[in-house]
Specification:
The complex is a heterotetramer, with 2 copies of chain A (395 residues) and 2 copies of chain B (125 residues).
Chain A: E1 4-5, H1 16-27, H2 38-58, E2 65-68, H3 71-86, E3 92-96, H4 101-112, E4 116-120, H5 130-136, E5 141-147, H6 159-168, E6 172-176, E7 195-199, E8 210-214, H7 240-278, E9 282-284, E10 296-301, H8 306-315, E11 318-319, E12 321-322, H9 335-339, H10 344-347, E13 350-354, H11 361-381, H12 383-394
Parallel strand pairs in A: 1-11, 3-4, 3-5, 5-6, 6-7
Antiparallel strand pairs in A: 2-8, 7-8, 9-10, 10-13, 12-13
Helix pairs in contact in A: 1-7, 2-7, 3-4, 7-11, 8-11
Chain B: H1 4-11, E1 24-30, E2 35-44, E3 47-56, H2 59-72, H3 77-81, H4 85-91, H5 97-102, H6 106-124
Antiparallel strand pairs in B: 1-2, 2-3
Helix pairs in contact in B: 1-2, 2-4
The chains are: A alpha/beta (395), B alpha+beta (125).
The complex binds pyridoxal-5'-phosphate (2 copies).
C-alpha cells in the first residue's frame, strides 16, 4: 500500500545523513563531553560545532544557545525561568489564545501560583494583532510569550513588530519558533527576540532535543539542577548524539529552506484548491499566501468528525491529523480553531495536512483522489448531512 | 488503539441508514461534543424486526452504533433494554479508556429509540 | 594505539543491537506516539514495550515508569516534584553527603527556598549508616533522597533498611540508582522504594533518556508542562527512539548482569591489587568486596595530581576519570572523597577506573604496565615526593 | 581543551629538576588547592644562568612551569620580573578559562624565586 506521510508538524523522519552521523556518536565517539580524556574531548568538540550550526540558523551567537530535551522543555525554561528571575520586578505575563500547550499550560501554572496572565485573542485567521498586545502591556509586565507560526493552522504572527514593542517597554520577549524553524527565516537580532524555543524533531532531526536561545545578558533561572552543564543553565549529561544530529539538521535546513518553501507552498495550494473543488461544505482554516507556513493545510469538512476522517485516511495509507477532541480524548476540539471563532461542530471536523521534504505531487494527487470518497462515505452515515441537504433543498 | 473488531465495524458498519416510517427513533449526543447517534427501529409486536443507524462521530462512535444494531436485531424490546453501553464495548473487545465515556453511547440511543416507540404506541392507544 | 575505555560510570557506548533498533525508529517508524495514524500507533506500541522492559528490570509495573531526559531530570522531578506535592505536610528533607550533584544541588535549591535540609555523613568507606538517617528524621520530614551506589567510589548503601525506616515513618523514599542499575539487582518492592531514578547512558543505552519510577499512589507534581504526555507527569513529545533504546538496553542488562558482575569484579580486584603491588604511597578509596560496585576502582596516588595522571593515561589511550578539582575547573576536589575524610592533597590525586562490558584482562594488564611509569614520571616532577622520601629516609 | 603547545610542554617539560645550591628558590600554591610550583634559580651577576622547576599540579600547572623556565633562561632579573602569568599563558597559545586563575602561577613562582635571591644577597652583604 502507498504510504503518504502528511503529518510533518507532528514530527518528521530523521534525515539519513543526520542519522548516520548520530550513529557514530552512539557507538564510537561516545565519550561524555565533560570528561578530560580524548573520548570526552571529541564529544565536546562535536557538541560545540552543533551549537554553532544551530546558532547560525537563527542568527545567534553559539554561546547564546542552551540545549534542552525538546521544545516543551525549552518553553518551560523560558517562561518559568523568566518568572523566577524577574518575579521581583513584576508578575504579569502576556500570551495568546493560540499557543501550544507547552506555553499555555505553563502560563496557567504560573497563574495558579500568583502571577497575572493576559491571553490576547486572535482574528478569524488566527493572527494576533500588535495593537491588542500593546493594550495588554502593564507596568508590571515581565514577559510576552508567543509563537512565531501556529502548529495547527500555519498562521505566521507579526513577531518582529511585537519584538519592537517589547523592547520599547523593556519586557522580555519569548518566541516559540518550533513550527517556523527551517520553514521561514528567523533572525533573533532583527526580530528583537530575547528567548527563542526550537525543537529538533520538527526539522528532520532526532526527537528529544531542542534548544532555547537566550540573548546575552537576559537572565533565566535554571529549571534542572545538577552537574552545571550548559553553563549551569541546564544540568544533565548532554545528549551529544542527539545534539549533534540537531546541529546537522539545522545545517541541512538552512541549505534547503528556500527551495523547500517554494516547492511545498505550491503543493499546499494545490491540495487546498483541490479540496475546495472536489468537496462541498468545506472551509479553509487560517490565512492564505505568505501569512501561512508553506507546508500547512487545514480544512474543516462539515458533517463529519475528524477522527473518522483520520482513521479512514490511515486505512488508505495517508497520515494526517485533526483538531477534533476525539483524537485527543478530551471533550473540546482544538482551542486554536475555537479561538479563531469556529463553532464546535465545525472544529470537530477539521483535518490538518502538513507537508514535508519528501512529499511529491503524486502524494497530493493521491489524497485528492481518496479524500472525496471518504467524505462521501462518512457523510452517508452522518445524521447531520441529511438535515443540511434537506434544509438546502427546502430553500 | 482500537481492537480489530472496532476497526471492522468502523470500516464495514452494519445497518447504516434510515428506516422510512420507523416506529421508534432515538438520538443522543450533540454536534458540539463531537458525537451524534440516531437509531431507527422497526418493531413488530414485541420484536425488533429491523434497525438502522446514522452516526456523526469518531471511530468508536461508529463502531458501537454498528455493533448495537447487530446485537438487537430480532431481539424483544425487553431483551434490548438489558443491553448496556458497557456490554456494547465488551462485544467489541473493549474500547480505549478515553472513549468509554465520551463515545460509548449507542445503547443509550437504542434505549431512547425504544422509549420513543413506547411513547408513540401510547399516543396511538 | 590501543584505546582502553575505563570510564563507564561517566558514560557507556551504545550497544550495537540497541543502536540498530533505534535507527529503525529514527528513519522509518518515526511517528509521534500521540498520533492516531499507523505511524503514531507503531511508535506508541514500541514505547509501551520499552516501558515494560524498563519496569521489569526494577520489579515495577509499567504504569509506574515515567520517562525523562535523563538521570538528572529524574532526580529533579523526584525531589522538586515531591517538595511541591507535599510542602503543606512538611518542609524537611534528608539526604547524604555523597550524593551526585543532581541530588545535592537540587536539595540545596530547596534549602534556599524555605526547606530544611539535613545532610547525613558517611563513614570512611563512603557508606551511610541507617542509624544516622534514623536520627535525622523529624515529624516534618517529607523525603529521604539518597543513592543506591556511589558514582565515585562504588559504595553500595543500605537502601533496603533505610526504605523500611522511611516506610515506618510515612516518609517518601527516593533512590538514585543511576550507577547501580544493571550492575547489581534492584527491586523497588522489596527495597520499599517510592521513587527511583535511572539513566540509560550508563547501561549501554543512548544519552538523553532516563526514567523515574513512581510507586502507584505516590504524588509527584510535574516539572514540565505541556501536551500532557506520560500521564501528565512529564510533557513533551516522547523521545521514542531513545526510549526504545533504553528499553532494549534494560533487557540486555537483565540478561547480562550476573555474568558481567562476576567477571568485572575479578578484573576490578586484579586492577586494585596490581596498583597496590606496583606503586607505593597509594590508598584504595571505598569499600571492598560485595559492598562495592563490581566495576569500580578508586585509588589515591599520593604526591601527584589527578588531571596530570588523566592526561598522561590518555596519551597512552587509557580513558579514566578523577576526583581532582582540576578536572572540573572548581577549587575543591571531590566532595565524596572529602566526606569520607580524605585530606585535600590526597583527594586531588585520586583516579577512578570504571570497567565495562567490553573490557578484558589485557586491558587491565595494559593499565598495570603503564600506570606505574606515569606515576614515576610525575613524581619525579613533584616537589612533594622529594619531601616525603627525604622525610622517610630521615626516620 | 589544551593547546598543542600546552600538551607539548606537559609531555616534554623543559628544565625539570632541582639546582643544587640554587641561589634563589620560590614556591607558590599549596597541596590543598591542588597546585604547588617550585622554581630554582642559578643567578650569576644579573643574569639567570640556569633555572629548573618541580611542580605538583594539573596539565596547565606543569606546562606553565616548563614554559616560564624557557622564557627566562639567559634573561636578566629585571627582564624576568616583567614576565606575567598572562604572558606565560599567551606563550602557550592560551589556557582554558577555568585554568587561567587556579593553575597559572608559574610567573608568581619565578618572581618568588627572584625575591628569594635578592633576600639571600642582602643577607650576605
Ligand atoms: C508550536 C509548538 N511549540 C512547542 C512544541 C513542543 O515541542 P516538543 O515536541 O519538542 O516538545 C510543539 C510541538 O509539538 C509545537 O508545535
Ligand atoms: C549517581 C548519579 N546520579 C545522577 C546522574 C545523572 O544522570 P544523567 O547523566 O543521566 O543526567 C549520574 C550520572 O552522571 C550519577 O552518577
Amino acid at each position: 500500500m502507498r504510504r503518504v506521510y502528511l503529518d510533518h508538524s507532528a514530527t518528521t523522519p530523521v534525515d539519513p545523513e543526520v542519522a548516520a552521523l548520530m550513529m557514530t556518536y552512539y557507538t564510537e565517539k561516545y565519550g561524555n563531553p565533560s570528561s578530560v580524556h580524548s573520548f570526552g574531548r571529541e564529544a565536546k568538540q562535536a557538541l560545540e560545532e552543533a551549537r554553532r550550526q544551530v546558532a547560525e540558523l537563527i542568527g545567534a551567537e553559539p554561546s547564546e544557545v542552551t540545549f534542552t530535551s525538546g521544545g516543551t522543555e525549552a518553553d518551560n525554561l523560558a517562561i518559568l525561568g523568566t518568572a523566577e528571575a524577574l518575579s521581583k520586578k513584576g508578575k504579569h505575563i502576556i500570551t495568546t489564545a493560540v499557543e501550544h500547550h507547552a506555553v499555555l499550560e505553563t502560563c496557567e501554572y504560573l497563574e495558579k501560583n500568583g502571577f497575572d496572565l493576559t491571553i490576547v485573542p486572535v482574528d478569524e485567521e488566527g493572527i494576533v494583532s500588535v495593537e491588542s498586545v500593546k493594550k495588554a502591556i502593564r507596568p508590571d509586565t515581565i514577559l510576552i510569550t508567543m509563537m512565531h507560526a501556529n502548529n495547527e493552522v500555519g498562521a505566521i504572527q507579526p513577531v518582529a513588530e511585537i519584538g519592537k514593542l517589547a523592547k520599547e517597554h523593556g519586557i522580555v520577549f519569548h518566541v516559540d519558533a518550533v513550527q517556523s524553524l527551517g520553514k521561514i527565516p528567523i533572525d533573533v537580532k532583527t526580530m528583537a527576540i530575547d528567548l527563542l524555543t526550537i525543537s529538533s524533531h520538527k526539522i528532520y532531526g532526532p526527537k528529544g532535543v531542542g534548544a532555547l536561545y537566550i540573548r546575552k545578558g537576559v537572565r533565566v533561572a535554571p529549571r534542572i539542577y545538577g552537574g552545571g552543564q550548559e553553563k549551569k543553565r541546564r544540568s544533565g549529561t548532554e545528549n551529544t548524539p542527539g545534539i549533534i544530529g540537531f546541529g546537522k539538521a539545522c545545517e541541512l535546513a538552512g541549505q534547503r529552506m528556500a527551495e523547500d518553501a517554494q516547492r511545498l507552498s505550491k503543493l499546499r495550494d494545490k491540495l487546498m484548491n483541490g479540496i475546495i473543488e472536489k468537496i462541498d461544505y468545506v472551509k479553509i482554516n487560517g490565512p492564505l499566501g505568505d501569512k501561512r507556513l508553506p507546508n500547512n493545510v487545514n480544512v474543516s469538512i462539515q458533517f463529519v468528525e475528524g477522527e473518522s476522517l483520520l482513521l479512514s485516511l490511515d486505512m488508505l495509507g495517508i497520515a494526517a491529523s485533526s483538531g477534533s477532541a476525539c483524537t485527543s480524548g478530551s471533550l473540546d476540539p482544538s482551542h486554536v480553531l475555537l479561538a479563531m471563532g469556529l463553532v464546535h461542530e465545525i472544529a470537530h471536523g477539521s483535518l490538518r495536512f502538513t507537508l514535508g521534504h519528501q512529499n511529491t505531487e503524486e502524494d497530493i494527487d493521491y489524497v485528492l483522489e481518496q479524500l472525496p470518497k471518504i467524505v462521501d462515505r462518512l457523510r452517508m452515515m452522518s445524521p447531520l448531512y441529511d438535515q443540511a441537504v434537506h434544509a438546502k433543498q427546502a430553500q | 488503539m482500537y481492537t480489530e473488531k472496532v476497526m471492522d465495524h468502523f470500516t464495514n458498519p452494519r445497518n447504516v441508514g434510515e428506516i422510512e416510517n420507523a416506529n421508534g427513533v432515538g438520538e443522543v449526543g450533540n454536534a458540539k461534543c463531537g458525537d451524534i447517534m440516531r437509531i431507527y427501529l422497526d418493531v413488530e409486536g414485541d420484536v425488533i424486526k429491523d434497525v438502522k443507524f446514522k452516526t456523526f462521530g469518531c471511530g468508536a462512535a461508529v463502531a458501537t452504533s454498528s455493533m448495537v444494531t447487530e446485537m438487537v436485531k430480532g431481539k424483544t424490546l425487553d431483551e434490548a433494554l438489558e443491553i448496556s453501553n458497557a456490554a456494547v464495548a465488551e462485544a467489541l473487545g473493549g474500547l480505549p479508556p478515553a472513549k468509554m465515556h465520551c463515545s460509548n453511547l449507542a445503547a443509550d440511543a437504542l434505549h431512547a429509540a425504544i422509549k420513543d416507540y413506547h411513547e408513540k404506541q401510547e399516543k396511538k392507544e
